[in-house]
């Protein structure tokens, strides 16, 4: 297995049309249906990265910025944004594609954590991930903070044990004066 992979090697794109049985009473795509689609897309990215079985460990963030109407063409794009030891963060971007007017609206994004597991569901090491584009580098840089926040929210880490996250809340230290 390659020890280092790029983000683009995990790129997964899923295109669907929204059917009536997936909509809410406003005839827009039901949020839970979208979450399931995002989880499927992200899990394939995670499995592509580590070439192993993966499980969803947490859904760290999901935003619903724009409704997706019945009959709409929904495009999901996911990539691993950072690989840790056995876990990895996967970013999912969702677009409403209007092929007739050639418009694409960014409707949602979601950030998931997956863990690679062996046949006994024990976490196993995964390859490193190298970001290449500017967006991949930004997402990679912020992923450690998000991991810490997710671990704190799930009760797996005490806030004072965090490294990167704690820095955000620390008062800037006054500049030291030169001694005469
Ligand atoms: C071959 C290629 C083909 C490609 C094409 C095929 C595609 C084929 C795709 C099929 C894809 C199926 C995808 C199913 C997706 C579900 O639906 S899975 C179902 C829902 N999820 C579950 O049931 C998981 C249940 N939970 C568990 O099994 C265990 O809690 C876990 C997640 C394995 C963790 O186990 P644990 O013993 O607590 O492990 P622990 O060592 O404490 O933590 C392991 C890592 O997870 C991290 N972690 C744990 N919890 C969290 C959290 N809440 N937040 C952040 N990180 C966390 C830890 O920090 C640690 O990270 P590292 O520092 O090692 O990187």
Short structural summary:
InterPro entries: Cytosol_ACT, HOTDOG_ACOT, HotDog_dom_sf, Thioestr_dom. The chain is an alpha+beta fold and 180 residues long.
Description:
- By secondary structure, the chain is α+β, with helices and mostly antiparallel strands.
- The protein has one domain (5-131): Roll (Thiol Ester Dehydrase, Chain A), CATH 3.10.129.10.
- Helices cover 26% and strands 34% of the residues.
- The chain has helices at residues 31-50, 134-153, 164-169; strands spanning 4-6, 12-17, 53-64, 73-83, 87-98, 103-117, 128-130.
- Strands 2-4-5-6-3 form a five-stranded antiparallel sheet. A two-stranded parallel ribbon has the order 1-7.
- Strand 4 and strand 5 (87-98) form a beta hairpin.
- The model has no long low-confidence stretch (mean pLDDT 93).
- The protein binds Palmitoyl-CoA.
- Residues 43-44, 47-48, 51, 54-58, 84-87, 113, 115, 117, 121, 123, 147, 150-151, 154, 156 line the site of Palmitoyl-CoA (PKZ).
Layout of strands and helices, then pairs:
Layout: E1 4-6, E2 12-17, H1 31-50, E3 53-64, E4 73-83, E5 87-98, E6 103-117, E7 128-130, H2 134-153, H3 164-169
Parallel strand pairs: 1-7
Antiparallel strand pairs: 2-4, 3-6, 4-5, 5-6
The protein binds Palmitoyl-CoA.
- Overall pLDDT score: 93
Strand content: 25-35%
The major beta sheet can be summarized as:
5 strands, antiparallel
- Overall number of structural domains: 1
CATH topology grouping: Thiol Ester Dehydrase, Chain A
**What structural class should be given to the helix and strand makeup?**
alpha+beta
Segments where pLDDT lies below 50 for 5+ residues? none
Q: What is the C-level CATH assignment?
A: Alpha Beta
The neighbouring-strand order within the major sheet is 2-4-5-6-3
Distance between the termini: 59 Å
InterPro entries: Cytosol_ACT, HOTDOG_ACOT, HotDog_dom_sf, Thioestr_dom
Protein name: Acyl-CoA thioesterase
Family: Belongs to the acyl coenzyme A hydrolase family.
GO molecular function: long-chain fatty acyl-CoA hydrolase activity
